[in-house]
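User: For a benchmark we're assembling, each entry needs the component sequences followed by a predicted structure for the full assembly. Here are entry 17's components. Please fill in the structure.
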Amino acid sequence: MQKRLILNPDLLSITINRLCHQLIENHSSFENTVLVGLQPRGAFLLHLILAQLKNLTGVNITYGYLDSTFHRDDFRRLDVPPKAHETKMDFVVEDKQVILIDDVLFTGRSVRSAMDALLAFGRPQKVELLVLIDRKYSRDVPLAPNYVGKEVNTLAHQKVLVQLEPDKQNKVWLINEENDAA
Amino acid sequence: MTQLSQKHLLGIKDITEKDIQLIFDTADTFKEVINRPIKKVPSLRDITIANVFFENSTRTRLSFELAEKRLSADVINFSASSSSVKKGETLLDTVNNILAMKVDMVVMRHASPGAPHFLSRHINANIINAGDGTHEHPTQALLDTYSIYQKYGNVAGLKVAIIGDILHSRVAISNIFALKKLGAEVMVCGPNTLLPRYIQSLGVKVELDVFKALQWCDVANVLRIQLERQQIKYFPSLREYSLYYGINLAMLQKLDKEITIMHPGPINRGVELSSDVADSNHAIILDQVENGVATRMAVLYLLASQKQ
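Assistant: Structure for entry 17:
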Protein backbone atom coordinates (compact mmCIF):
# COMPACT_ATOMS: atom_id res chain seq x y z
CA MET A 1 0.00 0.00 0.00
CA GLN A 2 1.40 3.37 -1.02
CA LYS A 3 0.56 6.26 1.27
CA ARG A 4 1.17 9.87 0.30
CA LEU A 5 0.63 12.67 2.79
CA ILE A 6 -1.48 15.38 1.14
CA LEU A 7 -2.17 17.54 4.21
CA ASN A 8 0.22 17.68 7.17
CA PRO A 9 -0.92 19.01 10.57
CA ASP A 10 0.29 22.58 9.85
CA LEU A 11 -1.31 22.76 6.43
CA LEU A 12 -4.50 21.24 7.77
CA SER A 13 -4.88 23.86 10.47
CA ILE A 14 -4.28 26.61 7.89
CA THR A 15 -6.97 25.02 5.70
CA ILE A 16 -9.46 24.83 8.55
CA ASN A 17 -8.68 28.42 9.45
CA ARG A 18 -9.38 29.48 5.87
CA LEU A 19 -12.66 27.53 5.79
CA CYS A 20 -13.72 29.28 9.00
CA HIS A 21 -12.99 32.70 7.52
CA GLN A 22 -15.04 31.81 4.46
CA LEU A 23 -17.91 30.79 6.72
CA ILE A 24 -17.67 34.04 8.67
CA GLU A 25 -17.63 35.97 5.39
CA ASN A 26 -21.00 34.45 4.41
CA HIS A 27 -22.68 33.98 7.78
CA SER A 28 -21.14 36.80 9.91
CA SER A 29 -22.82 36.34 13.31
CA PHE A 30 -24.20 32.82 12.69
CA GLU A 31 -27.51 33.96 14.20
CA ASN A 32 -29.65 31.94 11.85
CA THR A 33 -27.04 29.34 10.90
CA VAL A 34 -26.58 25.80 12.21
CA LEU A 35 -23.63 23.48 11.61
CA VAL A 36 -24.41 19.82 11.02
CA GLY A 37 -21.66 17.18 11.01
CA LEU A 38 -22.36 14.07 8.95
CA GLN A 39 -21.76 10.93 10.99
CA PRO A 40 -19.38 9.39 11.60
CA ARG A 41 -16.36 11.28 10.25
CA GLY A 42 -17.88 14.69 9.57
CA ALA A 43 -18.42 15.04 13.31
CA PHE A 44 -14.64 15.27 13.97
CA LEU A 45 -14.26 18.01 11.37
CA LEU A 46 -17.30 19.80 12.81
CA HIS A 47 -15.58 20.05 16.18
CA LEU A 48 -12.34 21.40 14.72
CA ILE A 49 -14.35 24.05 12.87
CA LEU A 50 -16.47 24.91 15.90
CA ALA A 51 -13.36 25.38 18.04
CA GLN A 52 -11.73 27.64 15.46
CA LEU A 53 -14.91 29.67 14.90
CA LYS A 54 -15.17 30.14 18.66
CA ASN A 55 -11.59 31.49 18.66
CA LEU A 56 -12.30 33.87 15.81
CA THR A 57 -15.78 35.13 16.66
CA GLY A 58 -16.41 34.18 20.30
CA VAL A 59 -19.98 33.08 19.54
CA ASN A 60 -21.48 29.72 20.40
CA ILE A 61 -22.91 28.24 17.23
CA THR A 62 -25.79 25.74 17.24
CA TYR A 63 -24.63 22.37 15.95
CA GLY A 64 -25.77 18.79 15.58
CA TYR A 65 -24.80 15.40 14.22
CA LEU A 66 -26.75 13.75 11.43
CA ASP A 67 -26.60 10.08 10.51
CA SER A 68 -28.02 9.20 7.12
CA THR A 69 -27.73 5.40 7.26
CA PHE A 70 -31.50 4.85 7.07
CA HIS A 71 -31.75 7.11 4.02
CA ARG A 72 -29.00 5.47 1.94
CA ASP A 73 -29.79 4.22 -1.55
CA ASP A 74 -27.71 1.02 -1.27
CA PHE A 75 -29.84 -0.74 1.39
CA ARG A 76 -29.92 -4.53 0.73
CA ARG A 77 -27.19 -4.12 -1.89
CA LEU A 78 -24.17 -4.24 0.42
CA ASP A 79 -22.49 -7.42 1.65
CA VAL A 80 -22.29 -6.01 5.15
CA PRO A 81 -25.02 -3.54 6.14
CA PRO A 82 -23.72 -0.16 7.32
CA LYS A 83 -23.81 0.56 11.03
CA ALA A 84 -26.01 3.45 12.10
CA HIS A 85 -24.53 6.16 14.31
CA GLU A 86 -26.15 8.61 16.67
CA THR A 87 -28.19 11.47 15.27
CA LYS A 88 -28.26 14.37 17.67
CA MET A 89 -30.28 17.31 16.43
CA ASP A 90 -31.77 19.21 19.37
CA PHE A 91 -33.32 21.82 17.09
CA VAL A 92 -35.47 22.04 13.98
CA VAL A 93 -33.91 23.47 10.83
CA GLU A 94 -37.08 25.23 9.65
CA ASP A 95 -36.04 28.50 7.95
CA LYS A 96 -32.44 28.07 9.12
CA GLN A 97 -29.27 28.19 7.05
CA VAL A 98 -27.70 24.77 7.37
CA ILE A 99 -24.06 23.98 6.69
CA LEU A 100 -23.49 20.26 6.22
CA ILE A 101 -19.94 19.22 7.11
CA ASP A 102 -18.17 16.09 5.94
CA ASP A 103 -14.56 15.02 5.59
CA VAL A 104 -14.45 13.66 2.04
CA LEU A 105 -16.80 14.25 -0.89
CA PHE A 106 -16.57 11.36 -3.34
CA THR A 107 -19.63 10.06 -5.21
CA GLY A 108 -21.97 12.49 -3.43
CA ARG A 109 -24.40 9.72 -2.52
CA SER A 110 -23.98 10.09 1.22
CA VAL A 111 -24.55 13.83 0.99
CA ARG A 112 -27.68 13.16 -1.06
CA SER A 113 -28.95 10.80 1.65
CA ALA A 114 -28.01 13.33 4.33
CA MET A 115 -30.11 16.00 2.62
CA ASP A 116 -32.97 13.51 2.63
CA ALA A 117 -32.42 12.82 6.34
CA LEU A 118 -32.20 16.54 7.08
CA LEU A 119 -35.75 17.12 5.85
CA ALA A 120 -37.06 15.17 8.86
CA PHE A 121 -36.10 18.21 10.94
CA GLY A 122 -37.92 20.84 8.89
CA ARG A 123 -37.51 22.88 5.70
CA PRO A 124 -34.26 24.80 5.81
CA GLN A 125 -33.95 28.22 4.19
CA LYS A 126 -30.67 27.17 2.59
CA VAL A 127 -28.35 24.18 2.71
CA GLU A 128 -24.62 24.48 2.06
CA LEU A 129 -21.91 21.86 1.98
CA LEU A 130 -18.45 22.11 3.47
CA VAL A 131 -15.89 19.34 2.84
CA LEU A 132 -12.25 19.01 3.76
CA ILE A 133 -11.36 16.98 0.66
CA ASP A 134 -13.19 17.10 -2.66
CA ARG A 135 -12.36 14.11 -4.87
CA LYS A 136 -12.99 15.76 -8.21
CA TYR A 137 -14.47 14.07 -11.28
CA SER A 138 -15.98 11.20 -9.28
CA ARG A 139 -19.54 12.36 -8.63
CA ASP A 140 -22.49 9.96 -9.24
CA VAL A 141 -25.08 12.66 -8.52
CA PRO A 142 -25.27 16.32 -9.59
CA LEU A 143 -23.89 17.92 -6.47
CA ALA A 144 -21.17 20.47 -5.66
CA PRO A 145 -19.65 21.70 -2.39
CA ASN A 146 -19.75 25.37 -1.32
CA TYR A 147 -16.58 25.29 0.78
CA VAL A 148 -13.63 23.05 -0.06
CA GLY A 149 -10.49 22.44 1.98
CA LYS A 150 -8.51 20.81 -0.80
CA GLU A 151 -9.37 19.46 -4.21
CA VAL A 152 -7.77 16.14 -5.11
CA ASN A 153 -7.76 14.31 -8.43
CA THR A 154 -8.06 10.62 -7.66
CA LEU A 155 -8.48 7.34 -9.47
CA ALA A 156 -11.21 4.86 -8.56
CA HIS A 157 -8.84 2.46 -6.78
CA GLN A 158 -7.35 5.23 -4.65
CA LYS A 159 -8.63 6.22 -1.26
CA VAL A 160 -8.36 9.32 0.87
CA LEU A 161 -7.67 8.69 4.53
CA VAL A 162 -8.53 11.53 6.89
CA GLN A 163 -7.29 11.32 10.44
CA LEU A 164 -9.03 13.87 12.64
CA GLU A 165 -9.72 11.87 15.78
CA PRO A 166 -8.98 13.61 19.07
CA ASP A 167 -5.58 12.73 20.61
CA LYS A 168 -4.04 12.08 17.20
CA GLN A 169 -2.20 14.37 14.83
CA ASN A 170 -4.53 15.70 12.15
CA LYS A 171 -3.39 14.41 8.78
CA VAL A 172 -4.76 13.50 5.36
CA TRP A 173 -3.26 10.79 3.15
CA LEU A 174 -3.86 9.60 -0.37
CA ILE A 175 -3.70 5.81 -0.46
CA ASN A 176 -2.93 3.76 -3.52
CA GLU A 177 -4.54 0.37 -3.02
CA GLU A 178 -3.39 -0.99 -6.36
CA ASN A 179 -0.02 -1.92 -4.87
CA ASP A 180 -1.70 -4.07 -2.26
CA ALA A 181 -2.16 -6.90 -4.68
CA ALA A 182 1.36 -6.61 -6.11
CA MET B 1 -20.47 -6.77 13.88
CA THR B 2 -23.20 -5.18 11.82
CA GLN B 3 -25.16 -8.22 10.75
CA LEU B 4 -27.43 -10.72 12.50
CA SER B 5 -26.30 -14.34 12.54
CA GLN B 6 -29.78 -15.55 11.53
CA LYS B 7 -32.08 -15.02 8.56
CA HIS B 8 -35.19 -15.29 10.74
CA LEU B 9 -36.09 -14.31 14.28
CA LEU B 10 -37.77 -17.48 15.50
CA GLY B 11 -36.72 -17.38 19.12
CA ILE B 12 -34.15 -15.93 21.48
CA LYS B 13 -32.71 -19.43 21.90
CA ASP B 14 -31.38 -19.33 18.31
CA ILE B 15 -29.64 -15.96 18.45
CA THR B 16 -26.37 -14.93 20.09
CA GLU B 17 -25.50 -12.35 22.71
CA LYS B 18 -23.81 -10.34 19.94
CA ASP B 19 -27.06 -10.38 17.94
CA ILE B 20 -28.94 -9.02 20.96
CA GLN B 21 -26.35 -6.28 21.47
CA LEU B 22 -26.58 -5.35 17.78
CA ILE B 23 -30.36 -5.14 18.06
CA PHE B 24 -30.00 -2.89 21.14
CA ASP B 25 -27.50 -0.59 19.38
CA THR B 26 -29.77 -0.33 16.35
CA ALA B 27 -32.81 0.24 18.58
CA ASP B 28 -30.99 3.21 20.17
CA THR B 29 -30.82 4.91 16.78
CA PHE B 30 -34.46 4.10 16.02
CA LYS B 31 -35.56 5.46 19.39
CA GLU B 32 -34.07 8.76 18.29
CA VAL B 33 -35.91 8.47 14.95
CA ILE B 34 -39.34 7.96 16.58
CA ASN B 35 -38.81 11.07 18.69
CA ARG B 36 -38.12 13.28 15.66
CA PRO B 37 -40.65 15.78 14.29
CA ILE B 38 -40.97 13.45 11.25
CA LYS B 39 -40.85 9.94 12.64
CA LYS B 40 -40.26 8.06 9.45
CA VAL B 41 -37.24 6.80 7.49
CA PRO B 42 -37.32 5.32 3.98
CA SER B 43 -35.14 2.22 4.58
CA LEU B 44 -37.75 -0.48 3.88
CA ARG B 45 -39.61 1.35 1.11
CA ASP B 46 -39.26 -1.54 -1.38
CA ILE B 47 -40.22 -4.24 1.12
CA THR B 48 -43.63 -5.75 1.75
CA ILE B 49 -44.40 -7.28 5.12
CA ALA B 50 -47.34 -9.54 5.98
CA ASN B 51 -48.56 -9.55 9.56
CA VAL B 52 -50.12 -12.97 9.86
CA PHE B 53 -51.96 -13.38 13.15
CA PHE B 54 -53.59 -16.72 13.86
CA GLU B 55 -54.14 -15.62 17.45
CA ASN B 56 -55.56 -12.45 18.94
CA SER B 57 -53.21 -9.59 19.59
CA THR B 58 -53.58 -5.89 20.11
CA ARG B 59 -50.33 -4.32 21.24
CA THR B 60 -47.86 -6.63 19.52
CA ARG B 61 -49.65 -6.22 16.23
CA LEU B 62 -50.02 -2.45 16.58
CA SER B 63 -46.39 -2.19 17.60
CA PHE B 64 -45.21 -4.24 14.62
CA GLU B 65 -47.45 -2.33 12.24
CA LEU B 66 -46.20 0.99 13.52
CA ALA B 67 -42.57 -0.19 13.33
CA GLU B 68 -43.12 -1.33 9.74
CA LYS B 69 -44.78 1.94 8.75
CA ARG B 70 -42.09 4.04 10.43
CA LEU B 71 -39.61 2.20 8.19
CA SER B 72 -41.78 2.89 5.11
CA ALA B 73 -42.55 -0.78 4.38
CA ASP B 74 -45.78 -1.79 2.67
CA VAL B 75 -47.92 -3.67 5.16
CA ILE B 76 -50.68 -6.21 4.74
CA ASN B 77 -52.61 -7.57 7.68
CA PHE B 78 -54.15 -10.97 8.01
CA SER B 79 -56.09 -12.37 10.91
CA ALA B 80 -57.26 -15.95 11.14
CA SER B 81 -60.70 -15.02 12.43
CA SER B 82 -61.62 -13.39 9.11
CA SER B 83 -59.82 -15.69 6.69
CA SER B 84 -59.88 -18.94 4.76
CA VAL B 85 -58.25 -20.73 7.70
CA LYS B 86 -61.81 -21.11 8.92
CA LYS B 87 -62.57 -22.81 5.59
CA GLY B 88 -59.96 -25.52 6.20
CA GLU B 89 -56.83 -24.19 4.50
CA THR B 90 -53.47 -25.42 5.89
CA LEU B 91 -50.89 -23.06 7.41
CA LEU B 92 -48.43 -23.66 4.59
CA ASP B 93 -51.06 -23.03 1.89
CA THR B 94 -52.24 -19.86 3.59
CA VAL B 95 -48.72 -18.47 3.84
CA ASN B 96 -47.72 -19.58 0.34
CA ASN B 97 -50.75 -17.76 -1.00
CA ILE B 98 -49.67 -14.63 0.80
CA LEU B 99 -46.11 -15.02 -0.47
CA ALA B 100 -47.36 -15.44 -4.05
CA MET B 101 -48.30 -11.78 -3.75
CA LYS B 102 -44.52 -11.06 -3.48
CA VAL B 103 -44.18 -10.55 0.24
CA ASP B 104 -40.63 -10.24 1.61
CA MET B 105 -41.18 -10.75 5.32
CA VAL B 106 -43.75 -12.50 7.47
CA VAL B 107 -44.52 -11.55 11.06
CA MET B 108 -46.46 -14.46 12.48
CA ARG B 109 -48.32 -15.28 15.65
CA HIS B 110 -49.69 -18.79 16.01
CA ALA B 111 -51.20 -20.86 18.82
CA SER B 112 -48.97 -23.87 18.05
CA PRO B 113 -45.41 -23.88 19.41
CA GLY B 114 -42.93 -24.25 16.55
CA ALA B 115 -45.25 -22.98 13.81
CA PRO B 116 -42.79 -20.28 12.64
CA HIS B 117 -39.93 -22.82 12.71
CA PHE B 118 -41.98 -25.13 10.48
CA LEU B 119 -42.67 -22.28 8.11
CA SER B 120 -39.03 -21.20 7.96
CA ARG B 121 -38.13 -24.63 6.54
CA HIS B 122 -40.61 -24.30 3.70
CA ILE B 123 -40.62 -20.70 2.54
CA ASN B 124 -38.06 -18.18 1.46
CA ALA B 125 -39.19 -14.98 3.20
CA ASN B 126 -37.72 -13.71 6.48
CA ILE B 127 -39.91 -14.84 9.36
CA ILE B 128 -40.36 -13.06 12.66
CA ASN B 129 -42.05 -14.97 15.44
CA ALA B 130 -44.60 -12.73 17.17
CA GLY B 131 -45.49 -15.46 19.66
CA ASP B 132 -45.97 -19.19 19.10
CA GLY B 133 -48.23 -20.77 21.70
CA THR B 134 -46.49 -21.16 25.05
CA HIS B 135 -43.06 -21.38 23.40
CA GLU B 136 -41.34 -18.08 22.56
CA HIS B 137 -42.11 -14.39 22.05
CA PRO B 138 -38.68 -13.08 21.06
CA THR B 139 -39.48 -9.44 20.33
CA GLN B 140 -41.19 -9.08 23.72
CA ALA B 141 -38.04 -10.42 25.45
CA LEU B 142 -35.90 -8.06 23.36
CA LEU B 143 -37.96 -5.04 24.32
CA ASP B 144 -38.04 -6.10 27.98
CA THR B 145 -34.29 -6.57 28.19
CA TYR B 146 -33.75 -3.41 26.14
CA SER B 147 -35.88 -1.49 28.66
CA ILE B 148 -33.70 -2.86 31.48
CA TYR B 149 -30.58 -1.99 29.48
CA GLN B 150 -31.85 1.55 28.94
CA LYS B 151 -32.63 2.04 32.61
CA TYR B 152 -29.49 0.47 34.12
CA GLY B 153 -27.00 0.84 31.25
CA ASN B 154 -26.24 -2.87 31.49
CA VAL B 155 -28.04 -6.16 31.96
CA ALA B 156 -25.14 -8.32 33.18
CA GLY B 157 -25.08 -8.82 36.93
CA LEU B 158 -28.65 -7.61 37.50
CA LYS B 159 -31.15 -9.75 39.36
CA VAL B 160 -34.43 -10.15 37.52
CA ALA B 161 -37.48 -11.91 38.93
CA ILE B 162 -40.23 -13.08 36.60
CA ILE B 163 -43.41 -13.33 38.61
CA GLY B 164 -46.75 -14.92 37.75
CA ASP B 165 -48.01 -17.53 35.31
CA ILE B 166 -44.70 -18.99 34.10
CA LEU B 167 -46.27 -22.22 32.86
CA HIS B 168 -48.30 -20.62 30.07
CA SER B 169 -45.96 -17.76 29.31
CA ARG B 170 -43.90 -17.51 26.14
CA VAL B 171 -42.78 -14.11 27.44
CA ALA B 172 -41.17 -15.82 30.45
CA ILE B 173 -39.30 -18.40 28.36
CA SER B 174 -37.94 -15.85 25.90
CA ASN B 175 -37.04 -13.49 28.73
CA ILE B 176 -35.13 -16.23 30.55
CA PHE B 177 -33.10 -17.00 27.40
CA ALA B 178 -32.39 -13.32 26.73
CA LEU B 179 -31.50 -12.43 30.32
CA LYS B 180 -29.23 -15.46 30.74
CA LYS B 181 -27.45 -14.69 27.44
CA LEU B 182 -26.85 -11.13 28.63
CA GLY B 183 -25.47 -12.32 31.97
CA ALA B 184 -28.33 -11.49 34.36
CA GLU B 185 -29.42 -13.67 37.27
CA VAL B 186 -32.97 -14.87 36.85
CA MET B 187 -35.57 -16.05 39.34
CA VAL B 188 -39.08 -17.26 38.59
CA CYS B 189 -41.82 -16.87 41.17
CA GLY B 190 -45.41 -18.03 41.22
CA PRO B 191 -47.70 -20.65 42.66
CA ASN B 192 -46.25 -24.15 42.35
CA THR B 193 -48.97 -25.16 39.92
CA LEU B 194 -47.97 -22.36 37.51
CA LEU B 195 -44.24 -23.19 37.44
CA PRO B 196 -43.08 -25.69 34.79
CA ARG B 197 -41.64 -28.79 36.46
CA TYR B 198 -38.11 -28.65 35.03
CA ILE B 199 -37.73 -24.87 34.91
CA GLN B 200 -34.51 -25.07 37.03
CA SER B 201 -32.81 -26.78 34.09
CA LEU B 202 -32.78 -23.35 32.37
CA GLY B 203 -30.48 -22.14 35.16
CA VAL B 204 -33.03 -20.06 37.05
CA LYS B 205 -33.83 -19.80 40.75
CA VAL B 206 -37.31 -20.75 41.90
CA GLU B 207 -39.19 -18.93 44.67
CA LEU B 208 -42.74 -19.41 45.87
CA ASP B 209 -42.95 -16.37 48.15
CA VAL B 210 -43.48 -13.20 46.14
CA PHE B 211 -42.17 -10.88 48.86
CA LYS B 212 -38.88 -12.81 49.05
CA ALA B 213 -38.60 -12.58 45.28
CA LEU B 214 -39.10 -8.80 45.43
CA GLN B 215 -36.47 -8.53 48.17
CA TRP B 216 -33.99 -10.47 46.04
CA CYS B 217 -34.44 -8.72 42.72
CA ASP B 218 -33.49 -5.41 41.08
CA VAL B 219 -36.18 -5.76 38.44
CA ALA B 220 -39.50 -7.59 38.69
CA ASN B 221 -41.18 -8.54 35.43
CA VAL B 222 -44.78 -9.29 36.39
CA LEU B 223 -46.87 -11.48 34.11
CA ARG B 224 -50.60 -11.80 33.70
CA ILE B 225 -52.58 -14.93 34.50
CA GLN B 226 -53.37 -16.42 31.09
CA LEU B 227 -56.88 -17.67 31.77
CA GLU B 228 -57.43 -18.31 28.06
CA ARG B 229 -54.75 -21.02 28.10
CA GLN B 230 -55.91 -22.71 31.29
CA GLN B 231 -58.20 -25.64 30.71
CA ILE B 232 -58.05 -26.75 34.34
CA LYS B 233 -58.01 -24.82 37.62
CA TYR B 234 -54.44 -24.08 38.76
CA PHE B 235 -55.50 -22.02 41.80
CA PRO B 236 -58.79 -21.58 43.65
CA SER B 237 -59.71 -18.07 42.51
CA LEU B 238 -58.27 -14.86 41.04
CA ARG B 239 -59.06 -13.22 44.37
CA GLU B 240 -56.88 -15.72 46.19
CA TYR B 241 -54.11 -15.40 43.59
CA SER B 242 -54.16 -11.65 44.02
CA LEU B 243 -53.99 -12.05 47.81
CA TYR B 244 -50.85 -14.22 47.67
CA TYR B 245 -49.15 -13.05 44.48
CA GLY B 246 -50.51 -9.57 43.79
CA ILE B 247 -47.98 -6.74 44.20
CA ASN B 248 -49.03 -3.49 45.87
CA LEU B 249 -47.25 -0.28 46.84
CA ALA B 250 -47.14 -1.17 50.54
CA MET B 251 -44.99 -4.20 49.69
CA LEU B 252 -42.58 -2.13 47.62
CA GLN B 253 -42.27 0.44 50.42
CA LYS B 254 -41.33 -2.32 52.87
CA LEU B 255 -38.29 -3.23 50.75
CA ASP B 256 -34.94 -1.73 51.68
CA LYS B 257 -34.21 -0.74 48.05
CA GLU B 258 -35.87 0.68 44.95
CA ILE B 259 -36.85 -1.92 42.42
CA THR B 260 -38.19 -1.58 38.90
CA ILE B 261 -41.56 -3.08 37.96
CA MET B 262 -42.19 -4.26 34.42
CA HIS B 263 -45.25 -5.77 32.79
CA PRO B 264 -45.63 -6.91 29.18
CA GLY B 265 -49.34 -6.03 29.21
CA PRO B 266 -52.25 -6.29 29.21
CA ILE B 267 -52.37 -5.58 32.95
CA ASN B 268 -55.16 -7.02 35.02
CA ARG B 269 -55.29 -4.22 37.56
CA GLY B 270 -55.96 -5.48 41.04
CA VAL B 271 -54.87 -9.03 40.20
CA GLU B 272 -51.11 -9.21 39.62
CA LEU B 273 -50.46 -5.48 40.09
CA SER B 274 -52.41 -2.92 42.05
CA SER B 275 -53.08 0.40 40.36
CA ASP B 276 -50.86 2.30 42.80
CA VAL B 277 -47.90 0.21 41.59
CA ALA B 278 -48.79 0.23 37.89
CA ASP B 279 -49.03 4.04 37.93
CA SER B 280 -46.05 4.63 40.24
CA ASN B 281 -42.48 5.70 39.43
CA HIS B 282 -41.37 2.11 40.00
CA ALA B 283 -43.15 0.99 36.84
CA ILE B 284 -41.58 1.39 33.38
CA ILE B 285 -44.54 -0.21 31.63
CA LEU B 286 -45.13 2.62 29.15
CA ASP B 287 -41.39 2.86 28.42
CA GLN B 288 -41.61 -0.80 27.46
CA VAL B 289 -44.32 0.04 24.92
CA GLU B 290 -42.23 2.82 23.37
CA ASN B 291 -39.15 0.58 23.34
CA GLY B 292 -41.27 -2.10 21.67
CA VAL B 293 -41.58 -0.01 18.52
CA ALA B 294 -37.85 0.83 18.50
CA THR B 295 -36.69 -2.78 19.03
CA ARG B 296 -39.11 -4.11 16.41
CA MET B 297 -37.86 -1.49 13.95
CA ALA B 298 -34.32 -2.70 14.72
CA VAL B 299 -35.23 -6.36 14.13
CA LEU B 300 -37.06 -5.59 10.87
CA TYR B 301 -34.27 -3.35 9.65
CA LEU B 302 -31.49 -5.82 10.47
CA LEU B 303 -33.27 -8.80 8.92
CA ALA B 304 -34.19 -6.82 5.81
CA SER B 305 -30.70 -5.38 5.40
CA GLN B 306 -29.14 -8.78 4.67
CA LYS B 307 -28.07 -8.95 1.04
CA GLN B 308 -30.63 -10.68 -1.15
